[in-house]
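Data availability (excerpt). All sequences and predicted token strings are deposited with the supplementary files. A representative entry, Membrane fusion protein, multidrug efflux system, is shown inline so that the format can be inspected without opening the archive.
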Amino acid sequence: MIVISVLIVAGLVFYRIHTNKEKEEKQNGPAGPRTAAKVYGKVIQGQPFSDFLSLSGAIEADEQIEIHTEISGIVESINFSEGGRVSQGQVLLRINDAELQAQLAQAQTRNNLAAENERRAKLLLEKEAISQEEYDIASADFRTAQSQIQLIRAQLSKTVVKAPFSGTIGLRNISKGSYVTPTLNIAQLVNTNRLKVSFSIPEKYASKVRVNNQIKFNVQGDSSVYTARIYATEPAVEANTRTLLVKAMTSSPSGRLIPGTFANIVFPLETLDDGLLVPAEALIPVQNGKKLFVMRNGLASEVMVETGARTEADVLITSGIQPGDTVLTSGVMSLRNNVPVQVNLR
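Structure token line:
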């Protein structure tokens, strides 16, 4: 009975194992070598690559001011055309100076009298007819009269407003006969012969900034690419934004660059003779960075990489692969490490 029982149990175990094996074969097919996954790949070779930063900036005039008067008064004449060119020293407007001219005439009369009194006092002093103190008083009156004339002439010079530099003058906010005060903005004067490009660069790249380095930029609505040369930077990084303010100089002979507009700036970092560029779709983001697959001995091999700059289609690999490696570029999300692959090179 014991022998029969053992035989029955052994038969049941064999039957169970055989049944499970048949099920597995039906589900997975007969045992055999794994089928190689068909993927696309690319042999990576070093190639020239220019690294750069894309930044936003603004166009500024080389010189730009608001025109104001130094004194209050009635505008007597306007000597410029809105939107026109003016030269350095050109008279822009005149303020009525009738009152000041009358004060000047009065001061000159007093000065003449004081001069005569000083002359007579000097003669009397030489004859000892008056004291030194009396002569000093006459002399002081004469010098005071002269100072009054200088003060009025200084006020008269302020009735004429001149252009401090050559440039283009904007729209005026006054008319002939207007009463102006020093707080009133008459118009803007802008020197557009030369223009400044102002932008901020992250502190990580601040050491890359060099005076006389050249940058390229464009503006909205204009397909032209312009160049500018860096001429100055702030001496310190801005604490709140952690950026360094940089200014470059350019010119606009055609007049198409307008101060105040935004600029899209390309700031060059470095040029590599043998940069390793891989298609962006080959990279797989992971928790600790990025990885990709390369083919080694017919198998997909997982490699952690470090990346740098990128173009529209490719990414610069700074470490992790070598020239001549075959990087897998399609179907990488479903690949596993050491899976056989059949690669079609692109």
